[in-house]
Amino acid sequence: MAEPVKAFVTGFPIRHSRSPLIHGFWLKAHGLEGSYEAIETVPEAFPAFIASLRENGYAGGNVTIPHKEAAFALCEAHDAAAEGIGAVNTLWFEQGRLHGGNTDAYGFAANLDEYAEGWDSADTALVLGAGGASRAIVHALKSRGFTDIHIVNRTPARAEELAAHFGSGVSTHGLDEAQGLVAAAGLIVNTTPLGMEGHGKDGLTLDLTRANPATIVTDIVYVPLETPFLRTARDAGLKSVDGLGMLLHQAAPGFERWFGLRPEVTSELRARILADMAK
Ligand code: ATR
């Protein structure tokens, strides 16, 4: 009998990762014998960890903060999203070579497809933050046809670097300019940790009452599920989409690569993760 397929998630720290719960849920739901474990790897040990994957019998795995760029550099081949973003969150072997993909942009778009159909009919987006998550989201926005993407960031140089990476259609602004960009935005995305549990009680302070009523507001933070920012959007009568679906959807392509079956993001899975978050 073939050995059960083994996969992992690695990061530093890793104990808060919900990926083992997601993949464990799918393995059980499909009666598969594989495993998916969380492995903490300090940055200094990451190259050796990657080099030992094959001898340790892994089919592949996920890579999270702070290893996504290092993983990109260590892969022998990349999918188009990883190339576009310059970071890898999913690893697998293909014809003996280590491949790296990036499913964050897919997860972001799939979440909005599910909860805010037609979100990509807008041209103009306002993106708060210019870190790794922002990079994946700008890639998704460009892929879905957004032609006017405004990045607002506390550190201007970081936003400028991101804009230079993506080229035309992406402009940068300081935090003080965010409010003035609200009215024209069809989509507003928070990619910063502001509003996340443990980051202080206050979230982003944008007045959304003058947004276009059709504007969609989304957050990549999902603890709490409704961030103060999303609450402000709801109070202003805007459609708001929480970040949990992005986490769930980004996991599905990796599961399919390792375990050979495309899992579904169901309300049961969502409820399972929410119950875990409530603990
Ligand atoms: P991730 O990989 O999750 O995107 P990151 O790369 O650390 O994480 O990026 C976090 C983003 O949130 C950055 O845009 C950061 O702004 P800076 O580039 O100025 O650091 C932004 N951010 C974090 N804390 C912030 C705060 N208190 N106020 C404003 N922006 C903040």
From TrEMBL:
Q: What class of enzyme is it?
A: oxidoreductase
- InterPro entries documented for this protein: Aminoacid_DH-like_N_sf, NAD(P)-bd_dom_sf, SDH_C, Shikimate_DH, Shikimate_DH-bd_N, Shikimate_DH_fam, Shikm_DH/Glu-tRNA_Rdtase
Question: What sequence ranges are listed for the domain Quinate/shikimate 5-dehydrogenase/glutamyl-tRNA reductase?
Answer: 123-192
Reactions catalysed: shikimate + NADP(+) = 3-dehydroshikimate + NADPH + H(+)
Q: Name one GO molecular function term.
A: shikimate 3-dehydrogenase (NADP+) activity
Any one GO BP annotation for this protein: aromatic amino acid family biosynthetic process
Database matches in Pfam families: SDH_C, Shikimate_DH, Shikimate_dh_N
Report keywords, A-Z.
Amino-acid biosynthesis, Aromatic amino acid biosynthesis, NADP, Oxidoreductase
Q: Where does NADP(+) bind?
A: G129, A130, G131, G132, A133, N153, R154, T155, P156, A157, R158, I220, G243
What residue stretches are annotated with the SDH C-terminal domain?
243-265
Tagged with keyword Cell wall biogenesis/degradation: no
Binding, shikimate: S17, R18, S19, T64, N89, D104, Y222, Q250
Question: Cellular component per GO?
Answer: cytosol
Q: In which pathway does it act?
A: Metabolic intermediate biosynthesis; chorismate biosynthesis; chorismate from D-erythrose 4-phosphate and phosphoenolpyruvate: step 4/7
Q: Write down the EC number.
A: 1.1.1.25
Q: Which residues form the Shikimate dehydrogenase substrate binding N-terminal domain?
A: 9-91
- Family recorded in the similarity comment: Belongs to the shikimate dehydrogenase family.
Subunit composition and interactions: Homodimer.
What protein name is recorded for this chain?
Shikimate dehydrogenase (NADP(+))
Species of origin: Paramesorhizobium deserti
Lineage, broadest ranks: Bacteria, Pseudomonadati, Pseudomonadota, Alphaproteobacteria, Hyphomicrobiales
